[in-house]
Amino acid sequence: MFWRLFTRSSDIERFRHGESPWALVTGASDGIGKALVQTLASRVADATQPALVSKVAEAVVGKRLTIAINNVGDVEGPVQIVENATPEDIERSINLGASWLTQLTRVLLPYLIANQPSLMINIGSLVAKHPSPYLAIYSATKAYTLAFTHALAVEHRKPHPSLRIQYCEVHGVATPSSNNPESFIIPSPQTIAKAVISSVGRRSDYVVPYWPHEFMSWVLAGLPGGWIDAMLETMFREKRTDIRGDK
Ligand SMILES: NC(=O)c1ccc[n+]([C@@H]2O[C@H](COP(=O)([O-])OP(=O)(O)OC[C@H]3O[C@@H](n4cnc5c(N)ncnc54)[C@H](OP(=O)(O)O)[C@@H]3O)[C@@H](O)[C@H]2O)c1
């Protein structure tokens, strides 16, 4: 954590080059995505409809895309045991968290490669490393995001040294859909968006952008796994949506 005091600030300007650079942010009509768009304050295309990969592909033709942020995830999904999930719950969560990320990446990478220096940021979660009970499917999609981003970053490191691919570990954020009240450890979407943009340029392709979250990750890394499981089980049992009024 402390090495951050000695590193330079955000490298984002490096990725805003050429006459008309564009950024694409998925899930940008609300929450962290909306705040990212406001923070980037440049030409930004929102992409929120997972069924419309081909539409996004059409929309980026002729645009100088230099930044892509895969932000959308199934935060609003039910908190429940897997056997209570409907086929639609499962499909929505995996589509939004894994398929959409993969399909969109396939379509956007050629543009990012052509327009280097360029940047892809994939928004992840604490639950990728510490999967949450009652959020098994969502946790699995975030573990997918983490593995996918790392493999992708390594694939491109040598052939495309000016294409930066970065995973951001995000913890609780006070977005409308998460229903979390804002606090020091649950910051506003604007605070997280600024932290995400500031984190660009750090050496690692795995970053925890908001420092109190980074501190929490550091503490959790030193705790026995069983303690973390028990803590998460208690926390999310309270939030279960499949047994409301029957805890
Ligand atoms: N909030 C947290 O506490 C938290 C914690 C850790 C990680 N994260 C991660 O941060 C990212 C953003 O989270 P957030 O809380 O900002 O999310 P959010 O507020 O739920 O995101 C809202 C955006 O996602 C779009 N979206 C949601 N469901 C959709 C669907 N089924 N199809 C298409 N678009 C959909 C919304 O578009 P419409 O308005 O058009 O539906 C909106 O633009 C996610 O990857 C999430 O996993 C969040």
What does this structure look like?
- It is a single chain.
- By secondary structure, the protein is of the alpha/beta class.
- The chain has one domain (2-237): Rossmann fold (3-Layer(aba) Sandwich).
- It has 7 helices and 6 strands.
- It has a 6-stranded parallel β-sheet with strand order 2-1-3-4-5-6, with helices on both faces.
- Mean pLDDT is 90; it is low at 1-6.
- The structure holds NADP nicotinamide-adenine-dinucleotide phosphate.
- NADP nicotinamide-adenine-dinucleotide phosphate is lined by residues 27-33, 48-50, 71-73, 75-76, 92, 96, 123, 125, 170-173, 175-178, 180, 189.
- InterPro entries: NAD(P)-bd_dom_sf, Sc_DH/Rdtase_CS, SDR_fam, VLCFA-Steroid_DH.
- Keywords: NADP, Oxidoreductase.
- One of its GO terms (cellular component) is endoplasmic reticulum.
- Belongs to the short-chain dehydrogenases/reductases (SDR) family.
- GO terms for molecular function: oxidoreductase activity.
